[in-house]
Write a structure and sequence with these properties.
Transcription factor zinc-finger domain-containing protein, alpha+beta
């Protein structure tokens, strides 16, 4: 996918890579687009799982930082 704007809202896309692979994330509407097959929106459940995983990682990182500062 070579486009740099969101197919849905024309907002700027940010390229991300995680354990599920690579994808484009819209900085304006929050849409997530699969990099392998083009501008296809990922299933809602998969998108929500990514959000939950990122939030859990953030919480774990904050907990480690707090433990290290004591």
């Amino acid at each position: 996918m070579t486009r740099k704007t969101c197919p849905r809202c024309n907002g700027k896309l940010d390229y991300l890579v995680d354990e599920w692979g690579s994808y484009w994330n819209c900085l304006y509407c929050g849409g997530i687009w699969d990099d392998l097959v083009g501008p296809r929106e990922l299933p809602k459940l998969h998108r929500e799982q990514r959000i939950i995983e990122r939030e859990n990682e953030r919480k774990a990182r904050l907990a480690r930082e707090l433990e290290g500062s004591d």
